[in-house]
Amino acid sequence: MKEFDYIIIGGGCAGLSLAYELEIYDKLKNKTLAIIEPREEYKRDKTWSFWKIFSHNFDDCIKKSWNNFTINTPDETKYVDCQSTPYQTIDSGMFYEKILSKLKSNKNIYFFKSIDELDKSNSLVFSSVPNFKNKHNDLWQHFCGVEIETDRDFFDDEIFNLMDFACDQRNKVHFFYTLPFTKRNALVETTWISELNDERLKDYDKQIDDYLSKHLNIKNCKINFKETGAIPLFRQKNLNKLNEIYIGSAGGMTRLSTGYTFLNIQEQSRYIRENIENIKNINLFKINSKYDFLDKILLKVLKNNSTEMSNIFFRVFNSKPKTAINFLSNKSNFFEDLEVILKMPKWKFLKELI
Question: What is this structure's pTM?
Answer without folding.
Answer: 0.95
